[in-house]
Amino acid sequence: MNEVIVNIIGTAQDAGVPHPNCFCQNCINAIHNGTRRFAASLAIIEPDRKQWHLIDATPDMREQMADIQMKYRLQGQIMNSIWLTHAHIGHYPGLMFLGREAIGAQGIPVFCGNNMKQMLEANAPWSQLVELNNIQLNSIGHEQQEQLSPSVRITPIEVPHRNELSETFGFWIEGPTRKLLYIPDIDRWDEWDRDIYDVAKKADICLLDGTFHSIEEIEQMGRNYKEIPHPVMTETMDRLQDLAEHTEIYFTHFNHTNPVNDQASAFAQLVQNRAFYIAEDGMELKL
Ligand SMILES: [Zn+2]
Ligand SMILES: [Zn+2]
Ligand SMILES: [Zn+2]
């Protein structure tokens, strides 16, 4: 059977860890100990076919590409397609490396929502990538399945998020044996017209928005939880606790302030004790 691997190539909130212009303890640790996290992203690799696909094109794409190409002997082999969740800065600026100043790619298929497609087509510098045919934009729609290859199917699902510039999608990624649900960014679970419990129940593996650990973390930042449009990990764990025994549920997209950045923290321990997982850069999941 053809092997399908998802490599978690980034696990940080959009700006990464260390966060620019921040010298909090997590950021200092990341600078000194090399425990940095790239912006949240996935690579889907089929080593036998020598093909790979990218979910989101982050500002860290240069390093993320090199890691994947070295690890799976794909040197010089550009990604076969890119699927974008939405137009926030951690999720699409990597497209710039495909342009004339860098790779000068030819016709890389890029899949994104209609609003995002229009935004990229209408605004420089992204419009130049389209004009020079570095990328070929294709629109995706809620629950419109696409076959990435005979062994991999991908299905976008629209989720509520601060949609100033584009709609926001999560993705189902289905391999020969397992089905993964990826939702790196979402506003509150309550604002979704479906129940995350029912959705997650259909998955073998979930990778979910873990931007903030708890309401206390947000208050310590001097922010009001009501103004922060993310579910907190403690709430997500409460909702999904029953599933955690049977489903591998990972958190990703960590803000630099999140105490789980430090694996030795009490919060990281709590997550593990509740049978949930903290995604780390470079983790491999077999589908
Ligand atoms: Zn994000
Ligand atoms: Zn920091
Ligand atoms: Zn976002």
TrEMBL record:
Domain Metallo-beta-lactamase: 52-254
InterPro entries recorded: Metallo-B-lactamas, RibonucZ/Hydroxyglut_hydro
Catalytic activity: 3',5'-cyclic CMP + H2O = CMP + H(+); 3',5'-cyclic UMP + H2O = UMP + H(+)
Superkingdom of source: Bacteria
Protein function: Counteracts the endogenous Pycsar antiviral defense system. Phosphodiesterase that enables metal-dependent hydrolysis of host cyclic nucleotide Pycsar defense signals such as cCMP and cUMP.
Protein name: Pyrroloquinoline quinone biosynthesis protein PqqB
Native source organism of the sequence: Paenibacillus albiflavus
